[in-house]
Amino acid sequence: MLKTGLFAIVLLLIAPSTRNRIMASIDATIAWTIEYAPLSFLAFLIPIATAIAAFVIVKNAPKWEEPESPMAKYRREAESADEMSD
């Protein structure tokens, strides 16, 4: 997937018309970021902070423990009763 995306970007950057359009879009984004400084920083910060928070939550989540079978209790009781009767 990454290789395909990089290949598509290279192909888009080869053609002068698409290169100019992409560069104009990047320039417009930079101009918007500078013009609306506090708002744009928040707009960039929210997805980054969300990704970091999700990573921390997943990393610190408790490990899943397989619940014990409900029949295991009765098997242990039956085994201990058999040992006592022997």
Descriptive report:
- The radius of gyration is 30 Å and the shape is elongated.
- The protein has a domain of 60 residues.
- α2 crosses α3.
- It is built from four helices and no strands.
- By secondary structure, the protein is mostly helical.
- Helix content is 84%, strand content 0%.
Spans where pLDDT lies below 50 across 5 or more residues: none
**Percentage of residues in DSSP E strands:** under 5%
Q: Average pLDDT, to the nearest integer?
A: 85
Global morphology: elongated
Q: C-alpha Rg, in Å?
A: 30 Å
Q: Give the proportion of residues in helices.
A: over 70%
Number of strands: 0
Structural class computed from helices and strand pairing:
mainly alpha
SSE arrangement, N to C? HHHH
Summarize the structure.
The chain has four helices and no strands. The chain has 86 residues and is mostly helical. It starts with a helix and ends with a helix.
